Amino acid sequence: MQAIRRRDTGPELAIRRLLHAAGYRYRCDYRVDVAGARIRPDIVFTRARVAIFVDGCFWHSCPEHGRTPRVNTDYWEPKLERNRTRDEANTRALEEAGWCVLRIWEHTIAHEALCLVRRAIPTPRPAIHASRDAVSEAAGKLC
């Protein structure tokens, strides 16, 4: 289990690339202290108070793709249940502190995730590079 990454997973990187290209600036794996809890969302927009979690289907028990392993169920069932319970508690704590929480499954297409972020944060800060306009237009057509 040492090889399991906490950050910079494939789905997370794909979403971050699109967000950055669209002009959004964010923090990665940023610790948010709320109500005595220390929570580390995958992507954080501090000014807009938006926290994004990119959840893996296996580790967070996706209703569509999540499954409990048949081997060593005495270990895996409680482990996956603790993950679900922690996810619910973190979401509740952030929302009670006034944060908008987006939970995106790893199987979600990156452009759909960008559309979710656009609904939560309508306009990104202006970017310096000119390629942002082309990417924003293309992403805007998908939303």
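^ that was protein a. below is b, sequence first then the tokens
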Amino acid sequence: MTTSPQDVEVVAGAQVHAGPQAPPLAGFFASDFAPLVYAAVRACVGEPRAGHLLEGVGDRVGIVLGSHSFDTASLELSVEHVNKGRVSPILFYQVVPTAILGHIARDYRLTGPMSCVAVTGDARAEVLELARLLLADASAEWVLGITVEMDPDPAKAFARADLVRSGHRPADGGAS
């Protein structure tokens, strides 16, 4: 466990890369974006249907997803379809980020606040700062901070998930 200068304690973290090792995810077919995000969360906190770090605290867990460009593969495919005069009602790239958060929330039984944000600088630092704000105003006791960056080269595309809580712990040292 580490504590950042912003008093956010990183309890667990994992980073995964795109490619054949990222398993497909039902309902998401046009790009690796959603499967990559889900794989990072699973690597960070464990399997949703087995013992995982979020069991029993779902109502106190927020999620922040940040990216510079989000799901560019679905965007490009959607534009290609529109240019050919074909509009797919299920290829609506703008909802992929919130849809994957809904998928994660359902599987892990999370009911705290969720946000998707476009970042402009250090994605992880910006997501952790937003997590700190959620923790500081008591909107959540834990935050799953996720950063994802897509790239045409799967070796460069990645998602990272960090489970964080406030670095200020009660005097008795007990966990919430």
